[in-house]
Amino acid sequence: MTHLIGLSGSLRKASYNSALLNAAIELAPEGMTIEAGSIRGIPLYDGDLEAAAGIPPLVAQLKELIAAADGLLLVTPEYNNSIPGVFKNAIDWLSRPANDLSRVFGGKPVAIMGTSPGRFGTIMSQAAWLPVLRVLGARPWFGSPLYVSAVHKALDAEHRLVDEEVRERLRKFLAGFASFIG
Ligand SMILES: Cc1cc2nc3c(=O)[nH]c(=O)nc-3n(C[C@H](O)[C@H](O)[C@H](O)COP(=O)(O)O)c2cc1C
Predict the structure, then answer these.
(1) Amino acid 158: pLDDT
(2) pLDDT cut 70: percent of the chain above it
(3) What crossing angle do the helices spanning 164-181 and 16-27 adopt, rounded to 10°?
(4) Which atom belonging to ligand 1 lies closest to the Cα atom of 120?
(5) Of 30, 100, 103, 141, which has the highest C-beta tally within 10 A?
(6) Are strands 32-36 and 109-115 parallel, antiparallel or unpaired?
(7) Which residue's CA is minimally distant from atom 30 of ligand 1?
(8) Residue to probe by mutation, ligand 1, list 38, 78, 115, 125, most atoms within 8 Å of CB
(9) How far apart are CA 87 and CA 7, in angstroms?
(10) How far apart are CA 72 and CA 108, in angstroms?
(11) Which residue's alpha carbon is at the smallest distance from atom 18 of ligand 1?
(12) 116: pLDDT strictly greater than 90
């Protein structure tokens, strides 16, 4: 069984990216499970806070989930052509302390997907993740990018992914990532 941790980079209750993560959980191929982690409640990174109190408990818990998982699925919104601050902030905390980085992220298979109501479906923010994944020492998968544009048209009133074409693209994306993890 391949077990993934999925992280949505949005705190909004009605987040489209969280809806896409929920759809991934539903459509995971046989042999794969996806567990949603959460970045909610992670404080702003502050070196003084780290020096005084160490790694915040929520961050420490999430680090263990990622370390134990076979892969990480990042579901990223796009703000101003890049990674939203709350998501980057969470990764910055998760990368601490530096001597624990390779245990948590080293060689970790990582897939990125994302969605926006706009026309380009997070192309720019997904690209902005690449140098971050490099410095984390992760093993990003580039097999088949998933940019979901005009997402509001693909969801129903309860924010379930109902567009069959997008569902199929998501199934293929997850199957490709499963093969990559092997
Ligand atoms: C500060 C801010 C900047 C944004 N910049 C972009 C952008 O550069 N490209 C884009 O496609 N959407 C942009 N958006 C729109 C987001 O894609 C949209 O709010 C989306 O719903 C956020 O993801 P979520 O639904 O998962 O919270 C921006 C939204 C905010 C609040």
Answers:
(1) 96
(2) 100
(3) 70
(4) 11
(5) 141
(6) unpaired
(7) 79
(8) 78
(9) 9
(10) 7
(11) 116
(12) yes
Residue nearest to atom 24 of ligand 1 (CA): 15
Q: What is the 3-state secondary structure (H, E, C) of 1-40?
A: CEEEEEEECCCCCCCHHHHHHHHHHHHCCCCEEEEECCCC
Q: DSSP per residue over 63-106, as a string?
A: HHHHHHSSEEEEE---BTTB--HHHHHHHHHHT-SGGGHHHHHT
- For 181, the 3-state DSSP assignment is helix
| CB contact at 8 A, 22 and 52 | no
The pTM (predicted TM-score) of the whole model is 0.98
Say if ligand 1 is within 6 A of residue 152 CB: no
Buried b / exposed e across 127-143, counting CB within 10 Å, b at 16+?
ebbeebbeebebbbbee
